[in-house]
Amino acid sequence: MDISAAIIVKNEESNLPRCIESIRKICKQIVIVDTGSDDRTPIIAANYGVDLYFKQWSNDFSEARNFALKHCYMDWILYIDADEELVIDDRLLNFLSIDFPADAGGILVNINNFLDADLTTSKKHRFTRIFRNDKNIRFLGKIHEQIADSILRNGYKIFDSNITINHYGYVGKNVDKELRNKELLLENQSSADVYNKYHLAKTYFSMADFDNALNIYKTINNSMELSEEQIEDVKIKTAQIYLKKNMFDEVINTLNFVSKDIDFEGLRLSILGATYLNTQNFLKAKEYYSYPAVSNSNLVNPLILENVKKVFNMLHIV
Q1: Spatial CA neighbour of 200 closest among 213, 214, 219
Q2: Position 185 pLDDT exceeds 70
Q3: Is the pTM of this model over 0.85?
Q4: Which sequence spans correspond to the domains of the chain?
Q5: 3-167, CATH topology level
Q6: Alpha-carbon span 225 to 195, nearest angstrom
Q7: Distance CA 189, CA 110 (A)
Q8: In this structure, what are the phi and psi dihedrals at residue 100, rounded to the nearest 5 degrees?
Q9: Angle 283-286-289 (CA atoms, 0-180°, nearest 5)?
Q10: What's the rounded mean pLDDT across residues 162-184?
Q11: pLDDT tens string 112-170
Q12: Taking the chain, what is the end-to-end CA distance rounded to the nearest angstrom?
């Protein structure tokens, strides 16, 4: 499989070397489009000998990504961001040696999103990140842009894989990116666009603007337009906001479900444990923190569990 990598960047000098190092052995071409960096990002890219282009930012992610696609000439394209890293292992190398059928248009990969600086908590989701270089396959959407719909509309199939990309963008807050995303989402907001509302609420939540996040989450918490995973994400973040506001009954009512996802289920149970801990129902708190899903969840920080264990020991809760 001959692959071009397509990357759009702005002020990514701290991330870009890790990204390029992770892909340079499997990508025969690396295309980088700089949308207005004022740091050393273009210099770093040029030093790696990539195909470097410049494009003025126009508040449209799809436009920038599609500009990069125009300069890709290999049979397949990997799109990856500067704050990401392709995991090179035997599963990847074996998969890339497969002779794909003519109707194969895209490949799903695992995105492993690290959530803290210690890289102890993370959340995985699957995304189409490798696709056939076809001029009719293009990104859609100004923000949270998608490629899968275009692949399917052009008569191709999307295949599964065990390929993994590590994403470090949630480690430490980037205020500029959060403000940019909020402005784009507000600009493209419509009363019927539930998907846009979902991402706007997530942006507010990330910026600790919990009142605005909660107001939106209340309107979409049972939407048929969101996936089961997204609905659970809405409910869990809503419960976290209620917990911050000491609205403990609302937390319990909101988390009245069971998730099939072990990461979400562990986080759900730990929030309930924290709720009962705050209301001094220590036996109930101990019960929820003791569920195996809590310690097995990648979304629950082990340091928090250690501190909770110390509290139970001091209170002689066994």
Answers
A1: 213
A2: no
A3: no
A4: 3-167, 175-314
A5: Spore Coat Polysaccharide Biosynthesis Protein SpsA; Chain A (3.90.550)
A6: 7
A7: 29
A8: -75, 145
A9: 155
A10: 71
A11: 988 877 787 888 888 999 999 999 999 988 777 889 999 999 999 999 999 999 999 87
A12: 57
Write out pLDDT tens, residues 296-305: 998 898 888 9
Cα dihedral: 83, 240, 118, 208 (round 10): 50
pLDDT at 172: 64
Q: What whole-number distance in Å separates Cα of residue 248 and Cα of residue 235?
A: 14
Q: How does pLDDT run across 52-109, given as a tens digit for each residue?
A: 999 999 888 899 999 999 999 999 999 999 999 999 998 898 888 888 999 999 999 9
- Check if CATH label 1.10.10.10 holds for domain 175-314: no
How many alpha carbons lie under 13 Å from residue 298 in its C-beta half-sphere? 11
Q: Indicate the helix (H) or strand (E) that contains 131.
A: strand 122-132
Distance separating alpha carbons of residues 273 and 67, to the nearest angstrom = 49
Q: Does pLDDT of 188 surpass 70?
A: no
How many whole angstroms separate alpha carbon 207 and alpha carbon 133? 37
- Measured from the Cβ of residue 150, the count of other Cβ atoms closer than 10 Å reads 21
* SS3 label, residue 71: coil
Instruction: Give the span between the Cα atoms of 89 and 163, in whole angstroms.
Output: 9
Other CB atoms closer than 10 Å to residue 201's CB: what's the count?
A: 25
The token pair at 71 is: 């300069």
**In terms of Cα–Cα distance, which of 150, 10, 11, 167 is closest to 87?**
167
Q: CA dihedral in degrees (150, 224, 169, 142; nearest 10)?
A: 40
- Residue 308's nearest CA partner among 211, 282, 299, 155 is 282
pLDDT at 192 over 60: no
Alpha-carbon distances of 197 from 149, 217, 230, rounded to whole Å: 20, 8, 12
H helical segments located in 147-209: 148-153, 175-187, 194-206
Q: How much is the average pLDDT of 217-226?
A: 89
